Amino acid sequence: MSPTIWTIGYERLLPPALIAELEAAGVRRLIDVRYRPQSRRAGMSKTRLGEALREHGIAYEHRRALGTPPDIRWFYKNNRVEEGAARFAAHIEETHAEDLDELAEEVRGGAMPTALLCLEAEPHDCHRRIVTDRLAARVPGLVVVDL
Q1: 128 CB-near residues (< 8 Å, 6+ apart)
Q2: Cα–Cα distance measured from residue 24 to residue 13, given in angstroms and rounded to the nearest whole number
Q3: Residues 67, 33: contact at Cβ < 8 Å?
Q4: 3-class secondary structure per residue, the chain
Q5: pTM (2 d.p.)
Q6: Do the beta carbons of residue 58 and residue 20 sit within 8 Å?
Q7: pLDDT for the residue 109
């Protein structure tokens, strides 16, 4: 069986819909890859989201190192996605390669079914695509499923 990682963006989802999608996919762990796990959307900030997920048997982790720092996030917010992606790719490899290596080892080792969470609904507009691309370079045969 090929190693698999899921991704999900909550931009168009409320917490019950997010949890339903994760459950339907069989995800048992959610890794929040937002730099700042805060949200104006009720239930999507770190503490409340973690509590809601635990009630459904889904583990929650926040990994700030895999988030987009504010200076790079600016490019995404200003419709300069390609430039933001290039800057984030360089940033993550230069400063947080060990965090990518750790996650890759978990995925290779058969960690419980895991999804990466960020805001953007479309993965190609989000830094989580860069994270999964970097994981795929470390985990041969990695399957990425965007929910």
Answers
A1: 7, 9, 33, 116, 117, 118, 120
A2: 15
A3: yes
A4: CCCEEEEEECCCCCHHHHHHHHHHHCCCEEEECCCCCCCCCCCCCHHHHHHHHHHCCCEEEECHHHCCCHHHHHHHHCCCHHHHHHHHHHHHHHHCHHHHHHHHHHHHCCCCCEEEEECCCCHHHCCHHHHHHHHHHHCCCCEEEEC
A5: 0.94
A6: no
A7: 85
Domain residue ranges in the chain: 4-146
Average pLDDT, the chain: 95
pLDDT (tens digit per residue) in 64-85: 999 999 999 999 999 999 999 9
Look-up of token digits 């800057």: 87
Yes or no: say if 91 and 73 are a contact pair by the CB < 8 Å rule. Answer: no
Give the tokens for residue 116. 């990466």
Cβ within 8 Å of residue 79, ≥6 positions away:
none
The residue to which tokens 């991704």 are assigned: 7
Contact (CB, 8 A) for 130 and 89:
yes
